[in-house]
Amino acid sequence: MSGLRVKAIAGNGVLGSGFRESSLSRGMTLGPDFIGCDAGSTDPGPYYLGAGRTAFPKVAVKRDLSLLMKAARSNNIPLIIGSAGTAGGRPHVESLKEITLEIASENKMSFKLALIDAEQDKSTLTELWNRGKITPISDPGLDYEAIQASERIVGMMGADPFVYALDQKADIIIAGRSSDCAIYAALPIMRGIDPAVAWHAAKILECGAAAAETRSSPDCLFAELEKTAFEVEPLSEEMICTPQSVAAHSLYENANPFELIEPDGVLNIADSQYQAVSSRRVRVTNSSFKPKTVKNAKLEGAVFLGYQSIIIGGIRDPMIIDQIDDWAGRLKKRLKSRVHDVYGKDSPAYHFNIAIYGKDAVMGDLEPIKKITSHEIGLVLEITSDTQEISNTIISLARHQALHLPIPEWSGLITGVACRHSPPFLERGKVYKFSGDSLMETANPLDFFPCRFLNIIDGTEIN
Amino acid sequence: MFENSNMFNKCLEQSILSAENVAGIYGIAPEKISTFAIPLISTIKISFPRAVSQGDLGDPDNHGGQQYAPLLDLEVIDGS
Question: What ipTM is given for this predicted complex?
Fold first, then answer.
């Protein structure tokens, strides 16, 4: 191979999930041009976006980030991190910035840090909605009402904000919500790699060693991009990539496995060719990429639903199990009446959900097996209301009603639920839902994803 | 994903994972189901929309990680 070449290391699929230090060291001997790492996802659900919290523990994130920063800085190559702090909003970028500065200070490191904001202000979004620049892509999407109701909204950036930060000579980039692939596509595109190659390689890199045949644990992946092809291999000697494992990775996280929609365009991999070049390295050719005429960004919002309290328990009595649907229906009725007794005509609104493990708690209406065959069932009783106080009160009422709910087969007072804990209920705090998805036109993406820079010298921020 | 193309092809020939069959198993309308056959990796991918949005009240499976289980009871006839 000769000519244009860009080499990339992916730390892992999500910052804080771990990788082997030996894999990163091996990767560094191969002369990488940059290291990338995704630090977020919607996988853990809407809570993190809504509450401004992060899913992975700080010490785990710091361990991974520290190794990646040291590797990147000692070789003077960029470290590019996207979807900071799980959800990629302002508190999430801020939290990862703090960890980065802590590592810099402890190791007296010097670098130019780029921070890219992905949070979108409601006033701007409302104005864009009124101008028809926001299009719902789910039912319901993130529409006018959802914009107003959302606690926080982020846009998913494509490659442009990363390209800008790299152009400005950033050494470390911490970006808010990003397309996972944009993290890895930006630098290769800047260097002149064909966008189809850059985006397809990025798609394989973004989950780290997940594209290996058997990923024994989260780990690093290495890719070498040429102008019109790329090769990929896992950095742990114990893992291998096969044409099947790399092709199969395209199935992951996409409804349509042939067309991958990115903020910058659509990657088509229906005709891609996967060829083994060694027992653990695969060469990929023949992908295509169609740029969008107007770039756009997916919007993600989280709406506050209320405060939740839950009880975990179980039932072993076969007569109660036999009539569990009826039992649950009667429990709901009795709770309603009890709440009315306690609160009177100003009874608060609440949502009561009963999940029955051993019946259909995992699949709900999709469960094809209707008959319970288990000798015991698990129960999660869930109350959601406007305040923690109300949810705690109502879950306590529900506990007492459930505990002694009569069934016709027994006379006298029964205790029909085994409660797991004392106190019996758990405060779950604030809960959120996603507010639906929309696409926002971003003719100039830099207007929507502004970048600021910090100069760090010997671990201290210099203005 | 099938271990070999032989079983993958038999599964397709026998329409085991057709939209109609899958719809019947999950009790949803066949129009809601997208299926993709990918011979290169002897794989059939099935997608359908969630009834409840991820993480909303009543969503039983945040990652949608266990919804494949009923398909494990299907049998492909391995006769030649």
Answer: 0.93
